[in-house]
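G., before I forget:
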Amino acid sequence: MRRAILIFFVLLIPIVSATLDEQNSWKIDIDNGYISTKPLIVEDQVIVRTSGFWINQDRPHVYSFDLITGEENWRYRSNNSTQHDLSPLLFVNSGKGNCGSWSSMVIVGWTDGKVTALDIYTGNELWSAQTEVITWGITGEMALDEDLVVVPTRKGLSSFCLADGVLDLRVNLPELGWRNGVTVTDEAYWLGNEEGVLNKIYRNGTVENQAIGVGKIRHAPIPTPHGIFVHMQTDEGSILFVGNESIGVSGSSPAIPTIYQNKIHASTSSEYLIIDCDSSNCVINDRISFHSNGEIVVNQLANGEYNVWLPSNNAEGGWGIFADTSLLRMHVTEDDTYTTAGPGFGKLNSIALGSDSGVLHVSFTGESAQDDTGIFETFILFIILCSVLALVIGFALDKRELSQKAFVVLILFISIQILPQVSNSWSEAIDIQIESEGDWNESWPDEWIGTQIVVIELPEGELLIGGMSGHENVEQLTDEAAIQLDINITKETHSIGTWITSFNGFAGEGWEFTIDGEKSPLGISDAKVSEDSVVRWLLA
Amino acid sequence: MVLTSGVHGPTLGPLESLIVNTLLIAVAFYLLCRPTTSPRREILVLSSITLAAVASRVALEPLPNVQPMTMMCLVMGATLGSRRGMAFAVIATILTNIILSNGWWTLFQASGWATIAFVGSRLVLVEEGTLNMKKLLMACIFASIFFDWWVSLSIYESGMTLSAFGYYLVNGIPFDIMHAISSIAAAVLFGPWLNNLIHEEVVLDVVSKPTGETDVVRN
């Protein structure tokens, strides 16, 4: 009976904790346009900006609310900004640099071209600077470069000293930009624009630029180990570039992508894309049906894993929460509608959410789960300690049954504790094993090991040639193979590349190739091969 | 392997869900409607343990692949017989998946645990009312791995290569081991208690009621 009562109370634990979680949350209808960019949670306050198209006396604001109670701390009104303000707020910790020292501040870029630095505690203006306005002013994401804030302006780039707002660098560019965030790297600043030009701006003001496609770059370019990633909006949809080379196409209206642990998370009106930059190139690994055009945010969890939040920009709204390639769930509020603002995460497991409804939601029940995970791990450790204690007592008192039970509980909870690490290591080991196997066939001659091999799977049988070397891409290698095998290849060349339409006159439904067993997102001219690659041609 | 979110396999539409649920409920009904002479107490105990199994599975859902259901199916099959054991497995699966998440995989989970209950009834795990722990522990290990691999079939779709499916299975081995460990723990902690409960409440409660000629002793 006692055991039954104990089990009953253990079963109640999740219900009780869920009830406690739900108690702490608040919302406020700011009643001042949209919330288009993610709120910031800084220490004990939530800072959010509003956007819209303003007439008469209405103007956009920046608000600060108490994280716990939702009471307003301060607000700042822009008197001249009348267009949609889409530049995310930028928090800067207090610091010191060559140009002076500064206190903690939030920097705001406005469509009237102004950059204002607001005191984080009072909302008072610390300094202000003016940039050019051509219909709009600043709409892109700003970035920090030591003691400077780098601002993507309507037709160029400016950097200002964090201490006093004095202009440090000004670069004029010929093309207009919109929502074109800037990226700071050790080498230079990177900035796209509405003409598909990627600018590389050195700190001395020198500009290198390259038109990488016909389209619009509306996000901060992302550095990867294989070059700069850009998700370009085009008339037909969008194209993804790495190092100025296309790695794939997708739907319309790209979201603002982000990179985390060498994986780029991008999205369009039709799909969420995961691009893996771990391998020799960035490759689109997964495409999941979803509609997001806003800020994609990665939420690092305490257990080492992470979730990706995508604002859903349709009438239903909400935020899709993804882990790996799975949609875990939609996070919804009662005021959901079209959403481009990502979630803001902060202390006490808090989440701040806003959408075009203009209602700010703050809750403490969210997916960051830092506290939840902490409680869970503490619970596991507590059980382990109790088991050890029971085991010792069992041995000391020669209670065999108690020792046995304590031992199995100990093993069980140690297993639970180490399972995530073991599982990850196991998966990685398998991945390495599979990668090393490639597309090699044990029946092939040993002389072919370490050479380039081509397999063509014709309906009447497989054509095979190996022992080749020195070819850099699939096209070169396949041409050489065709010569050695004495077969004809028919190719077609289009604006987006060249492809093979038939081998020995056999076209079928088309031909596709793999390199070492993996499909390539690139065309035959761009797909690189190594000295031991196996290129396999298959009928589509 | 089978409880990772998002890898259960194809989701079902309303019609498919209705078909799967109807099928499982029909199977449970068929299993429970014979024999007709079961004492009420047996049904009561079966229902209580089923609800306890549901509660435990839901409560333990945050723990990765910790499934006391596997051990319970073995013991239920061994003590109450194959019909009652399989009915227990099917009903408990339907009820828990209503809370956890229902879909194509429910069919595999229900049939997997029902198979385990059937095997439990044939392994002679209980001898003269006493649970053979060695046999039960061995059965738990094999049943856990069998269950995981069986349920993994739910993700197998047309177009999926055998090697990809094999890769999926091999990837899940740590979770299979976790399942086996949790089944062993459940067996050590609750196996004898569950067996005694059923034995005392049901088996000993069945009093023979001889009637007719079988009761006549001919001299």
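Chain A has a mean pLDDT of 86. The longest strand of chain A covers residues 461-468.

More on Monday.
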